[in-house]
Specification:
The chain is of the alpha+beta class. It is built from 11 helices and 10 strands.
Length: 280
Amino acid sequence: MSGTEAANRSILWSDSAAPGALMMRADFTTLEFAPHVHDELVIAVTEAGGSRFRSQGVEGHAEPESLLVFNPDEPHSGRVGDKGCWRYRAVYLSLSALDNAMEDLDLTTPHLPYFRDNKISDPDLARRFVTMHRAFEEGESVLAKSTALLEGLSDLFARHGTPHYRPRSPGDERRIVARLIDYLAAHFSQDVTLSQLAELAGMTAFHVIRCFNRETGLSPHAYLNQLRLREARHLLATGQRPAEVALSVGFYDQSALNRHFRRAFGVTPGQYARALQHGP
């Protein structure tokens, strides 16, 4: 590998949680993109350094926590900016993936949202897209990944798309949410999907998220994680090893259990198990 190639690294992957989408993580120091188009919607967040880009007859600069959005078939070019590095995360959404998202969002307009400005200054949304992207990279549950992507697209369309998207307000769906809670309790060790919950509720996927949040204060995937963590504590108390517990309760691997356990309780599963066995 040449020095130039070594200085420009990227990873591209797909995920069954988002059919028709590609995820990319890149770290460039010399790369320059010639003018080109994508037949996907491109959403990119700069994490470090920055880039110079040209689109719609305008040249701009992307810095950390700025979003770049390129409409399908929109010519653009780009290169590493003045700081000499450009580290970013991107998601490429095909037309079929966008159609699925619009259906899940109950967005009935015949036209895709259009973005008049390629650069969007919305640090909160940029951080959420990074969190979503890491969920795909770290092997979170299908429910967590699809929920994070759908919530991010909803806010992107509502805040910055043309025409502005307005999600339907949740009503009084307590009995439906109670049914979903029962379903999650019975299937917490399985890879429950947002589509399954939507079909059970007779709602769009995004309306399930909003109603569940309203009634419980948690998203469906956050509630599912709490069920898994509750069972994990019980199994750890019986002496099972963390690696076995992780798979038993539905986490991808022990690192996923460790991550969620520590976020919830401030200690690792191993620390928790040792405390039960030996005291302080």
